[in-house]
Amino acid sequence: MEVEIKDAQVACLSGIIDLQKACQQEKLRFSPETNQYLLYQTLRKLGPYVAQKLVSKLVERGEITWEQDEDWEVEQILDHTVDEGTDYYLIKWKNWSNAHNSWEPKDNLECQDLLTEYHSEGRRIMAKRKLIDLDTVGYDSKRSRVDEIFRKLEPIRKTLSPLQLLSLSSPKKGGKLPLFKGLITSNGQKVPKLHTPGFKQLNPRTKFYKQKKDEVRKALKEWETKLNGINNDPAPIVVENEVDLEGPPENFEYINDYKPGEGIDIPDDPIIGCECEDCLDCKKTCCPSACGSEFAYYKYKRLRISRGTPIYECNKRCKCGPECPNRVVQQGRKCKLCVFRTSNGRGWGVKTLQKIKKGSFVVEYVGEVITNEEAERRGRYYDAVGRTYLFDLDYNDGDCPFTVDAGYYGNVSHFINHCCDPNLEVFGVWINALDPRLPRIALFSRRDIAKGEELTFDYMMTGDTTNQAPTLDDVEKSVAAGLMGPIVLADPSKDSPVIGEVDTDGTDDVDILGAVTMDTPPETPISGQGDTGDDTMEENLPNKPVSPRKSPRKHDSEAKSPLKMNMSPRPIISSKSPQKSNLPTTSLPMAGDFSSDTVSPDKNPSTIQHLNKVLGAEGDAEPSAKLLPKSITDQYRIVCQCGAKNCRKYLF
Ligand SMILES: C[S@@+](CC[C@H](N)C(=O)[O-])C[C@H]1O[C@@H](n2cnc3c(N)ncnc32)[C@H](O)[C@@H]1O
């Protein structure tokens, strides 16, 4: 498919280089905002180390000039390490905060006096003492470095194009970049630094790396304990990073339930509940039916409804007790999950530490419930940093007054990544809050999931119809096969429907009842475990719609629009906005680990204050807002790294 930009034609999935070349051929130029945006994104993708090298090369060639200011003067040497025969020093820069301290190779330093002083006995002891204060600053330094490079390009970034920058890294032209010396001079000559290995580039065999890794492990263990102290689900959370030196995210607070944002009231007092003796037996009068929907679960507490059907669970006014088969999401996550560091640049992810049967409730997506307007505002920031945690509650045909933001307050679902072929499915659930605009978001397994598999859902929730309710035939087959507890999310891509069975193998599993058999048994009793009773045929037939009694709005399962992540695509060529589906993108040639070179929302000084700073009133903006003006931040697209065969290439 092609996109038309004035007279030029470029393939819609063009990378930045092709796009720029095509534009050059057609004598089209990027608008300054777009160029600026692309330049910033390019620097981020390259990471501070490579970016600095390339910028230095341009300075050296005289193609750009560099702001000569008071930066880059060594104030103090704080530490020393040797990596593969090269001496590195941890530098505190004059007029820069500790967050900008960096490791520099000896060759780049021209401050012999300070080096001599450092190596004198007394100085070393002082430096060691200081180092303790600096222990936590390392994670921020890479991001800051890219921002600083970009900031210092300010006067010339309208003329410097990302293509010009990237062309320097071509092996044909440059070969190995010569080491650019004289970076820090004591005689006033200041040029960009070049050789600054960040933590992730340090050799994992060195003493320094190992020391840092131990610190990260310790910090993650502490974070895990903290999370589990707050988590009130029956199953615990494990945290693991076998990939890099990323520590616990900052500015993330664990919560168990929705946190109402400013001016939002989440009702918690349903006006009516059911009077059933046994909710399964009186499905026609129980809560789901009264709300015009279907009974969502089998007695085994696994789904019997198809994608898009609203779930109404029994609530606090209902006569039934906690064992009621219509109380599933409200009983919390029963599956032991692990927050782990992904190895392909997707940051953190979540994997299951137990097998999960198809149709089981896995986890709820919680966060701050905010208004549409606030979501728009925050969305600009998330777009700019290439991450989003916004989830529109647009259950009712695009009418979306509320959004859930799990960016700063969330549970383990905050870390669940997107996949175009996901193993989780999103359902809207109403329990004690019956306001149709305020469903809870529950993630259920859409197929059997193996122990250790990463959990994912489709952020776009596009029109995949593979998850349908079972046909009567499916059910008859499963009953005839003597299998108990038919799981209803039949997968038409397979010859026969997938059937859930009662687990008897004693392995870690979410059993047919949606309850868990774990290494460590859950604290709460597992209700009805081992119940092998069959569901009736009638139970598997779709309920006839009845008039809503309890909920103000009846949901028509045919016409619903699914809940989905809020990631609005925007044009990158700012002058003319092509149609959404034809937008070019910022796919860059180097796939960088975003943890190391992007601005991350969880690295910022505070949550709302930070957002207010970045997105605050026009003219009153902080420097970071200048880095990413609205016109730029509106144009971000994230390249999907899910690796699925049917990958749609972009996260939106
Ligand atoms: C809800 S967060 C998921 C957790 C996130 N990985 C983290 O470290 O906090 C969503 C963000 O994760 C990243 N992400 C999730 N799925 C991805 C995918 N398939 N490909 C690339 N990035 C992905 C994107 O930056 C996205 O905006």
Q: How would you describe this protein?
A:
It is found in: Chromosome, Centromere; Nucleus. This protein has about 650 residues and is of the alpha/beta class. Among the domains are: about 1-45, no CATH class; about 215-455, SET domain (Beta-clip-like), CATH 2.170.270. Helices cover about 25% and strands about 15% of the residues. It has 16 helices and 24 strands. It has helices at about 15-25, 30-60, 110-120, 120-135, 140-150, 160-165, 170-175, 205-230, 285-290, 370-385, 470-480, 535-540, 595, 610-615, 625, 630-635, and strands spanning about 1-5, 10, 75-85, 85-95, 100-105, 235-240, 255, 260, 310, 335-340, 350, 355, 360-365, 370, 390, 400-405, 410, 415-420, 425-430, 440-445, 455, 510, 515, 565. The strands form 7 sheets. It has a 5-stranded mixed sheet. It has a 5-stranded mixed sheet with strand order 8-14-16-15-24. It has a 4-stranded mixed sheet with strand order 9-19-20-13, with no helix packed on it. It binds S-adenosylmethionine (SAM). S-adenosylmethionine binds near residues 346, 347, 419, 640 and 642.
Helix-strand layout with pairing:
Elements lengths: L1 E4 L2 E4 L4 H10 L6 H30 L12 E10 L2 E8 L8 E4 L6 H8 L1 H14 L3 H15 L9 H6 L3 H4 L32 H24 L6 E4 L12 E2 L4 E2 L26 H4 L20 E2 L24 E5 L6 E5 L2 E2 L4 E5 L2 E4 H14 L4 E3 L9 E4 L3 E2 L6 E2 L5 E7 L9 E6 L8 E4 L14 H9 L28 E2 L5 E2 L19 H4 L23 E2 L28 H4 L10 H8 L7 H5 L2 H4 L19
Parallel strand pairs: 6-10, 7-17, 8-14, 9-19, 12-22, 18-21
Antiparallel strand pairs: 1-2, 3-4, 4-5, 10-11, 11-21, 13-20, 14-16, 15-16, 15-24, 19-20, 22-23
Helix pairs in contact: 2-5
This protein binds S-adenosylmethionine (SAM).
Protein name: Histone-lysine N-methyltransferase SUV39H2
Subcellular location: Chromosome, Centromere; Nucleus
GO molecular function: histone H3K9 methyltransferase activity; zinc ion binding
